[in-house]
């Protein structure tokens, strides 16, 4: 189980890029086995790392299919093997300590 | 106005780091002039870029004050000058296109 | 052809991590079809994107095999389809403009 | 002493961006107190963290001054307080272990 944050920036398509972000998001919305949280800078995914990486590759190709020539993709992977950490548990753990 | 995602990883303090993340978050919770969204991988901030950078420096020092020797900080800045883009507007723009 | 920067941070193994970085680098040194440039913060790879992603997965597993429980991996992909851009061409292009 | 990797992506200016990268680099070339290493994905800087952050802000403004409306900046900071780690020492430490 891994938690993966992803950001894609299409180059050469004007300062507004939500249309291209949406094209990528359509690949991952309701994708079986992968939880998704859309954020203002990153979309965060939770699930099997190799399935997530496969989905990211499809998200990239979906952006190229809109006519974009160059895409800068930033990925941050939190892969933990000593325990199964979910997005919710990470948030709850920090919030609990903030409440102390 | 900028939108800034930040992630801090303290090195050498065990695989669980929420205690150190919380120490950094305490600096930014309810900080005047800066909107904050805690996420599973990044905390996203919205406000004046230089005020946000000042807050990030204080967040870093708060982590060092817990006894950490080394901190890896990842920052992603979306600075737009043609229009005032908020976190909510970015999300709404993508969600609207997803609903089409 | 893509250019990919990668950084791996093992958590819970002390502030010095070069031993774990080296374990990952051993996977990619002299790997056929992938050019490699070791930098102070990122290792930059050049080649077929899917081959590079496969290599990155092996690099991650090599770090886990040293006994690490948690690895934070940051990846930045520059994937360009309008022309074949190499690491050297990107550097030469910037340096040429710096010399103007 | 910190080591900081920085990448800037101007949005809306075509797929080729070396002209804008060069505008930012001009701010940091031969800057007193800051060592610089230009890489294919990141420029890596070494020096006092607050001086580096000030330089980064000037690099961002230099890109806006070329007429760009939106800039995505990715920054990765390695700040170590238990010993003074330079770019060269980090590389030497990994290369030494690769040679074992």
Automatic annotation (TrEMBL), chains A, B, C, D:
Question: Which top-rank group of organisms is this from?
Answer: Bacteria
Q: Where is the Thiamine-binding protein domain?
A: 4-94
Any Pfam family: Thiamine_BP
* A cellular component annotation (GO) from this entry: cytosol
Its family remark reads: Belongs to the UPF0045 family.
State the InterPro entries in the record.
MTH1187/YkoF-like, Thiamine_BP, UPF0045_domain
**Name by which UniProt lists this protein:** Thiamine-binding protein domain-containing protein
């Amino acid at each position: 189980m891994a938690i993966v944050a992803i950001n894609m920036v299409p180059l050469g398509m004007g300062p507004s890029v939500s249309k291209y972000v949406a094209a990528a998001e359509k690949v991952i919305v309701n994708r079986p086995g992968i939880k998704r949280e859309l954020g203002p800078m990153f979309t965060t995914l939770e699930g099997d790392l190799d399935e997530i990486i496969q989905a990211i590759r499809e998200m990239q190709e979906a952006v190229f299919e809109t006519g974009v020539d160059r895409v800068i993709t930033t990925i941050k992977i939190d892969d933990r093997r000593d325990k199964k950490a979910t997005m919710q548990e990470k948030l709850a753990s920090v919030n609990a300590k903030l409440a102390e």
